[in-house]
TrEMBL record:
Pfam families: Radical_SAM. It comes from Conchiformibius kuhniae. This is S-adenosylmethionine-dependent nucleotide dehydratase. It comes from the Bacteria. Residues 1-242 form the Radical SAM core domain.
Amino acid sequence: MDELVVNWHITEACNYNCRYCFAKWEGNERELIHNPLNIGILIREIPKLLEILNENFGTCFKYIRLNLVGGEPLLYPEAIREIIHCARQSGLLLSLITNGSLLNQDWVNIISESFVQIGFSVDSIHEQTNVAIGRGSNREVFKASMILQYINAIRTYAPNIGIKINTVVNEYNFQEDMNDFIHKANPQKWKIFKMLPIITNNLSVSNQQFETFLLNHQAFRSIISSENNDEMTQSYLMIDPEGRFFQNHHHGVKVYQYSHPIHKVGIQNAFNEITFHVDKFHHRYIPLNPMR
């Protein structure tokens, strides 16, 4: 496998209030994105992960894709521009996960020019379900139809960009039929997560309910990558808004394990402070997980 993916949750802020959101971190420092100097330090450290992992685990990663996550990353356009600038200097590829609510033509241009992949968080195509989940702002509730319009616009400017859909299966949507939406979106990958009860058990689902959602969408099994709670544990390289590696613990403990800030102690020292299972990481990318 050539690609190493590092997920940087650049902010906890979001214009939505999803009830099961796990993007809540303990800390006292200001989010890194408000300091261009620290953004540069962090991004210059990230490429060193190639040598660290290849030497420690015998992997053969050749490049890094820095995936910008939130909260909602598009709340901070100036920080995104600074990250793009620093990533180009450091040889990092960029991708982004967004709820899509803040997209406009300017963002379509930026994404088309600077990102190799764009992911959209789509948990439901029904307005009432999105309201119940908390996927809405004071202005409007999430509309899947708008996501389809922006996917088409981005593909017009960047035909080869990767399109991904992320869906969290929860109590309100586990019986939902999203087949028509996925057919129209035509993503290269559909990532389906079982709701992870890190912050709350609210809206959690059983394994059987999770399987119900998967079975209802087996027509797309060739692009589906599904993850239960165990598969999500300690299998991601994740950086929090303060620039720390973080991992979720085993056995349902609702806390994160944190490293010291990467921009203060260096990425080697920070990496040594967390647990990372490279075999689980690899499993998510074989070629696409079969339906269970």
